[in-house]
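TASK: fixed-backbone design
INPUT:
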């Protein structure tokens, strides 16, 4: 497994090794000890599997607030997505900044997003499947969203706005300036 780090603390990409032969391939897609080496002390409680039929399906930006905040380990096992993580930690030197990573079945990369980040993605191809682990269970009362098109975020989704397929709920999410500070940056944990 290899790691790619970003300017935003605590977010990183994992590239699991893939061993191929005439039969297909073998890959260890998750190793708890590897995450511990990266200073991630996460217990995963739920796996989610999402299928999107069309290119341009935008899901997000979503997060859960305490006491059920979620960290996520995201991978695309069919097709390709542009995965986004936005820093929501008040006091963070990268508050409001985002990371954009292409995850695909071909590149086999995974993105780790700790609690305190909004998450979303757009499908870059038809017939995409995304699997992600979460560090807490889904809790409807703690579910929140952030406007995917907030100009303050300056996210390039790589697909024309007129071609995006977005849920009604995701059209009504507030902008970053209107979100309560649910998360606080702690330099010691970063």
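OUTPUT:
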């Amino acid at each position: 497994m290899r790691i790619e780090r970003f300017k935003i603390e605590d977010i990183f990409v994992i590239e699991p090794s893939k061993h191929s032969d005439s039969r297909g391939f073998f890959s260890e897609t998750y190793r708890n000890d590897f995450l511990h080496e990266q200073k991630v002390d996460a217990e995963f409680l739920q796996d989610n599997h999402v299928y999107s039929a069309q290119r341009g399906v935008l899901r997000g930006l979503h997060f859960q607030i305490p006491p059920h905040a979620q960290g996520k380990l995201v991978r695309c096992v069919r097709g390709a997505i542009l995965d986004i993580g936005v820093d929501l930690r008040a006091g963070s030197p990268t508050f409001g900044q985002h990371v954009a990573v292409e995850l695909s079945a071909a590149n086999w990369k995974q993105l780790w997003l700790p609690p305190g980040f909004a998450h979303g993605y757009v499908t870059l191809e038809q017939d995409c499947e995304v699997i992600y682990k979460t560090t807490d269970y889904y809790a409807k009362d703690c579910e929140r969203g952030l406007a995917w098109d907030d100009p303050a975020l300056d996210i390039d989704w790589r697909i024309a706005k007129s071609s995006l397929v977005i849920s009604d709920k995701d059209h009504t999410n507030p902008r970053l300036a209107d979100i309560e500070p649910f998360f606080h940056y702690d330099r010691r944990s970063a």
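COMMENT: The radius of gyration is 16 Å.
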